[in-house]
Amino acid sequence: MQRISRMCLCLFTLLFAATSCAMADSEEGWKSFKGAWFSVEYPSGFQVRPSLKSRTSVKGVDSAFFTSPDGAVEFYVFSPQWNGEPSDIALKPETEELVSEKVENKPDERQKMGAKLSVRWFTIAARDKSYTRSYVDTENKQLNTRYVMGIKYPDQKVYKDFRDIYLKFVNSLRQFGD
Hints:
Number of strands: 10
Strand content: 35-45%
Number of helices: 2
Largest sheet: 7 strands, antiparallel
């Protein structure tokens, strides 16, 4: 009888732990957004703003913005079927300035054909210091592909507070083909 009680206790403990883990996953609250040629996961409290209409699909978008409930931070994705121009994040010279830029050319490890990636890191800041926007633009000119991921934030504290969430967003990007 004591053995059965211990087994029941162990089973209850395992069920409780499994339920707690499942609840933690659902409380995590991430949703999926599907563009014309990509999908991405984002925190459920964020507001989605689809942006550039797809040039190669009758439905869907090539880019979208995801804004936190308090408006403090905004994530961005641009992932068209082929290459394109992320015009919705273009520098606005009258109110913004380019504060840093770095370009690196490296092999595309996903391709075995010797294709090269051009990776451009750039940061744009509002002239009035109200926000900063940082992006990573990854382009493979040989294969005619491109995607851009970005984050907009008012200061370094907010950036640090959202950094891990942003990285989860970036790593969730899935691109589709024909």
